[in-house]
Design a protein that fits this description.
- By secondary structure, the chain is an alpha+beta fold.
- It folds into three domains: 74 residues, no CATH class; 113 residues, Immunoglobulin-like; 105 residues, no CATH class.
- It is built from six helices and 13 strands.
- The strands form three sheets. Strands 5, 8, 9, 10, 12 and 13 form a six-stranded antiparallel sheet that branches.
- Helix 3 runs antiparallel to helix 4 and helix 4 packs antiparallel against helix 5.
- The model has no long low-confidence stretch (mean pLDDT 81).
Length: 326
């Protein structure tokens, strides 16, 4: 699986113009070697300057690679079994499983799904097996919310691409929005000149035991932190001798709803559908109504309403920045 991911990633970079690529090692030391397996400590910085086809501006990328690579001897040669990635985890451990679902037409799809602390990534390789050119039209992503409900999105492509017969194209699709690390599906649709749509779809499953850093970053999000703080304050007020008004818990819940509204804007932007979307909208509206009621219950006057609106207005730029980043 790691070899497939590296092959697709390498193929994706062949479609970009690379001006400079370097790896500056700070440490490269063999810490274990028993003849059949070895462990190498790595610490270095990987730098890359590139621009995509059709773009004029160059982009720079730099990553710190630090950790231990594991090697195995196969047929007298050393093969990489696992290596550290830029997130601080191990590359092979972050890779989930992918299985084909449907292939309606001449579009061939191969993909690798990986989870990281700040994002998930889909490494996608396409090939036109037919005799007619295929224009890659759209990528559809499906993630499972609350285990069973589907949330479907139509994601934009960074560039237009038409595959001639026998041509191949690879790209990496990052996913930073909520509901990472869930079961789902990835589908790519291509259209030929006659209007026929060719679709290839695979099911994606996260790794059984992703790295601890990935699970932590996935669970600890701004709305979850605000909701946990509100619940903690309400529980604190139940202890004898303590009085906690609903002012602060109310504004915390309203702020969490504001963050979740930013997530909903992201989903609407990419034409989301599925049974999960109405439920998410209802939960966000309910949380905002509950937080506002808890705040205004303590101060139902016009000044209380103004204070609530002002506090939410202060959080709005942060929520908008979150929406733009994702």
């Amino acid at each position: 699986m790691l070899a497939r991911a590296l092959r697709i990633e390498h193929a994706a970079w062949t479609h970009a113009e690379v001006a400079a690529r370097s790896f500056e090692p700070r440490r490269l030391e063999v810490v274990r070697d028993d003849g059949a397996a070895a462990t190498v400590a790595i610490d270095g910085e990987y730098r890359l300057a590139y621009r995509q086809q059709g773009q004029k501006e160059w982009q720079g990328s730099g990553r710190r690679i630090r950790g231990r690579a594991h090697l195995a001897r196969v047929d007298g040669e050393w093969k990489v079994a696992d290596l550290p990635d830029s997130s601080g985890g191990m590359a092979a451990r972050a890779i989930g499983s992918v299985e084909p679902l449907t292939a309606d037409g001449e579009l061939e799809l191969d993909a690798v799904y990986a989870t990281h602390p700040k994002r998930d990534s889909y490494s996608v390789a396409l090939r036109n097996r037919g005799a007619r050119p295929l224009h890659i039209a759209r990528v559809r992503l499906e993630v499972r919310v609350f285990r069973r409900l589907a949330l479907q999105l139509a994601l934009p492509l960074t560039e237009e691409r038409t595959l001639q017969p026998g041509d191949a194209w690879a790209f990496i699709l990052p996913w930073k929005a909520p509901f990472r690390g869930r079961d789902g599906a990835l589908a790519v649709e291509a259209v030929e000149s006659s209007g026929r749509v060719h679709t290839a779809k695979v099911a994606t499953h996260p790794p059984a035991r992703p790295p601890l850093a990935t699970r932590f970053r996935r669970a600890v999000t701004p709305p979850v932190v605000l909701e946990a703080a509100a619940v903690a304050l309400l529980v604190w007020g139940l202890f004898p001798g303590w009085i906690v008004t609903s002012y602060l818990p109310g504004i915390l819940l309203a702020g969490a709803a504001l963050y979740r509204a930013a997530y909903l804007l992201f989903f609407v932007r990419y034409r989301s559908g599925g049974a999960a979307l109405p439920l998410l909208v209802s939960l966000t509206a309910g949380e905002l109504a509950l937080g506002s009621w808890m705040f205004l219950r303590e101060d139902p006057t016009l000044s209380g309403l103004v204070i609530l609106g002002s506090l939410l207005a202060l959080l709005t730029p942060t929520a908008v920045a979150l929406f733009r980043r994702e």
